[in-house]
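The data are passed on as follows:
___
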Amino acid sequence: MKKIEKICINCPAGCHLEIAVDDNKISVSGNRCPKGKSYGESEITDPRRTVTAAVLVKSDKRCCIPVKSSAPLPVKLIPALLKKLYSMTVGLPIRHGDVIIKNFSGTAIDIIAAGEMLNSDFPSEKNLQLSETELI
C-alpha cells in the first residue's frame, strides 16, 4: 500500500489529506468535506491545475498581458504550455476573455486573456514627463 500526503486546495480549510493507494483502490482520509475526497482521488488519477502566466505584447514598450487557462489543465501538459506562452508575442488590442490559444493540445481548454490592453493604453513619452512642481 502506498500512502501520499497532500494539502487540499479546493477550499480555504486546507485539509491535510492522507491518500492511500492499494492496487486500483484509492481511499482518502483527513478531509472535512466531499471536495477533499474528490481532490485526493483526482490527484492520483488525473492531477490538474489552473495555469496563469504572462505573454509579451507586440509594441515598442514590450509590455505583457496576463493569461490563464479556461479550466484546470493536466499537470503533465503545463511545461509545454509555459514554453509556448513564454515564446509567443500577441498583437493589440487585447480584451479580457480573448482567446490567446484555442484548444491547447487537444484538451478543449483555451488560454484566455486575463487583462485588457488597447492601443491607447500605452502612455506617450510626453505624458510620462512630470514637471518639478508635480514631483513635490
